[in-house]
Amino acid sequence: MSPSRDDQVPRWRIEGSASIDVPAGGPVLPRRSSLWILVRSGSIGLGCGSAQLELEAGDAAYLHRARLHRITALTDARVDLADLRRDQAGTSDRPLVVRGFADRQSGVVSLLSQCPVTPQLRISRPGVADAYGDLLGSAMLSESAVAGLPRPDAVVRTVAALLEDSPHRPWTLAELAAAAHVGTTALVDRFRRETGLAPMQYLRRVRIERAMDELHRGDRPVAAIARDAGYGSAEAFVRAFRALTGSTPGRWRQSARGRTRMEAYPMAASPANTAPRAMVAAGPR
């Protein structure tokens, strides 16, 4: 029996959207594994390994494994971001890019700008939010071409997938290296070259971002969220959370009330994940 037309059409989901200002040289750090980005003004660089692609005002890109790409403002820039995900196996790890998307798909851009996807919209009208995702994803597919960037390092892709699929596991560097069939030193070197992070720093970021989603969604105790995130104690979780965000989980939860996840934590000040982060608030709608 051949698959139906609906089975063949990729389904898209959008969890939230925001507009932010990024200073020249500042990174955009994806909150989820995939990301849609539209440059409103200025220019943004998409990097993979030693290669870089420049996006100018009006250009858009979809990154299925966004954390494996460096996203940096080449000039002071304003960008629209959406937590867009394509629900289809085998999706390319290389970015999809549309030059002049803002002009080619002005109606889609205007709709997302005037009616952003908020937690209230996802709760009260989930069908509308899902339709947003299909509309934006279909617009990208209809206009896009695979960007002229190399695919992320296969070793890095393998390890990143393990960490993102099971961040709660007590991973060790030796286990990750064995899974990728390389030595620990080679793994760290290749991971840093591709992402700017060591594997365990990458894991910490994934864990904290998942925990931020839980904090944003409800009132579960911090200790329970810490346990689910893979931390042995609430104290260890709080230390890791503060190192990444500059705030405690409780204070962050209070400040995030009423905002989308992307507004609450759209980006951080440095990709090194070694020092407390400065929070950059989303710009006005």
Question: What is the strand and helix layout of this fold?
Answer:
Layout: H1 5-8, E1 11-22, E2 35-41, E3 43-48, E4 51-56, E5 60-63, E6 70-73, E7 77-87, E8 96-98, H2 101-104, H3 106-114, H4 119-124, H5 126-143, E9 145-146, H6 154-165, H7 173-180, H8 184-195, H9 199-217, H10 222-229, H11 234-245, H12 249-256, H13 261-264
Antiparallel strand pairs: 1-7, 2-5, 2-7, 3-4, 3-6, 5-8, 8-9
Helix pairs in contact: 6-7, 6-9, 9-10, 10-11
Pfam families: HTH_18
Domain HTH araC/xylS-type: 157-255
Protein name: AraC family transcriptional regulator
Structural description of this entry:
Helices cover 44% and strands 19% of the residues. The chain is an alpha+beta fold. The chain has 2 domains: 5-146, Sandwich (Jelly Rolls); 154-264, Orthogonal Bundle (Arc Repressor Mutant, subunit A). The strands form 2 sheets. The protein has a 6-stranded antiparallel β-sheet. A 3-stranded antiparallel β-sheet has the order 4-3-6, with no helix packed on it. It is globular and about 50 Å long. Residues 1-8 and 266-285 have low confidence and may be disordered.
